[in-house]
Amino acid sequence: MFSLSDAQRLRQELPPSGLSSNDNNSLIQNYLTHYGLADLAKTYSYGMGRFHSQNFELVCQSFSVPSTSRPPSATVFILHGYFDHTGNYSHLIKHCLDLHCNVVVFDLPGHGLSSGKPASIDSFDQYLQAFHDCIHFVEAQQLGSTKPWHLIGQSTGGAIAVDALLNSGQSQKFDKTILLAPLLRPKSWLLSKLQIKVLSLFTKSIARGFSNNSHDQNFLNFLRQEDSLQCTRLPIAWVEAMSAYIKKTESANSSQKQLEIIQGSDDGTVNWQHNLSKLKQLFPAANTTMIEGAKHHMANESPHYRDQVFARISEIISK
């Protein structure tokens, strides 16, 4: 088992600049083993580093393809979803490596190995700034020397990617941007917003309900029973920050930037019908691929659905 205190110790032990390998660090080894990343870290060139962003200490991980046979073809940045962290993304990391792409992924503030109030944020602008600072860290460590760069965002990670496309010059550094079940409005948003306004008068957080957002029961069981880095409370502050993000994004000017969206038809987490319509208005050049029957957590769906998601990612990246 890898505990929350282990995560805090590991972050504090990382150098303030540069990368640590798993060779002589038992905490990194325990982390990689617990989250099914150990084999990837052995097969590929692996590093874990810490960088500063605003008032946060954020943890970034990189997996690089050996250039002994042929050089890597691209670098893929992964933005994880709400309540998630890098340790939950072994399938997607492996798939990108199988495509001969280097991978960079970091834990958002309040998630995983990174610091911050658990699963909370004052503004989604802080997520965007964290992404900017991750890019600066990657460039300083020469982790992104392999071009082109591609960006994949799951759910809230997709919201950050959209924010970057609409409001950041950094988005120009990315060739392909792929959104997996992107967050804009969650399901039943108008009702939820009213409920949150009432609850905010009495509490700062509510109990998190672990949703059945994947057909992979082993994944769902792991989150509930074996992942100590999962937050069990939903902070009201995060919902208020999301509300401000929705208002800002839905009133934004449209963009001619390319965007690829992969969405499941059985997604009960976000209001995907509204979101796809609004994203098409914001990005007229966007392409959408529907995965019939897939639920929300596309990076961790059962193999039947995940294989379809990954096949589409392969098509997009190989274009």
TrEMBL record:
It comes from the Bacteria. Keywords: Hydrolase. Residues 71-302 form the Serine aminopeptidase S33 domain. The keyword Hydrolase applies. The keyword GTP-binding does not apply. It holds the Pfam family Hydrolase_4. GO terms for molecular function: hydrolase activity. PANTHER family: PHOSPHOLIPASE-RELATED (PTHR11614). This is Alpha/beta hydrolase. It comes from SAR86 cluster bacterium. The lineage of its organism: Bacteria, Pseudomonadati, Pseudomonadota, Gammaproteobacteria, SAR86 cluster.
